[in-house]
UniProtKB/TrEMBL annotation:
Entry keyword annotation includes Transcription: yes
Domain of life where this protein originates: Bacteria
Transmembrane segments: none
UniProt record similarity statement: Belongs to the sigma-70 factor family. ECF subfamily.
GO biological process: DNA-templated transcription initiation
RNA polymerase sigma factor 70 region 4 type domain mapped to chain residues: 124-174
Species lineage: Bacteria, Pseudomonadati, Bacteroidota, Bacteroidia, Bacteroidales
Keyword Transcription regulation: yes
Protein's name in the database: RNA polymerase sigma-70 factor (ECF subfamily)
GO molecular function: DNA binding; sigma factor activity
Coiled coil regions in record: none
SUPFAM superfamilies in UniProt: Sigma2 domain of RNA polymerase sigma factors, Sigma3 and sigma4 domains of RNA polymerase sigma factors
Record key words, sorted: Sigma factor, Transcription, Transcription regulation
Domain RNA polymerase sigma-70 region: start-end pairs: 25-90
Amino acid sequence: MADFDDIYYIRRIKHGHTDDFIYIARRYQRMVFTIVCKIIARREDAEDITQEIFIKVFQSLDKFREESEFATWLYRIAYNTAISEIRKRKYEFTAIEDNFANIPDENLPESIDRINTEDKLKCLDIVLKKLSPDDALMITMFYMNNHSIQDISNITSISVANVKVKLHRIRKFMNFEINKLIQQ
């Protein structure tokens, strides 16, 4: 039903009822801001970029072909805009693939099973901050926002197979880092 509502308003906007864009902006404001905040650390910058994203979406609505869900299309614009901003600022992150691709899974200890939930969450928060914005967003989309691997592939323009590989390597990195924290 929500998709029908989105399509209804999008069609109205395309036919000149531009005031209806407020429905789209209100409905997706929090989602877009959350995506941007996962990539852009400074809140003020994230707010500015969120506004830019909605301007872009409004100006590009005629390109939305209704072949996918509107939320996925919007998510992709938000993701690409925030990543472009990061690249402009030239932040550097170490690619997880460079460090953890060749570590066999059986070499990762499972110390995390021995600590309480509160400590697990603290460790998880520390490790999430060590991830590149791309990797943190991918983990967030999959585990916290329940996006399918196919959705993540569509949003990030990464093949389904590569999304699976990246998620596996990110989990491996996170497990390794959490176990290092536990052992300190």
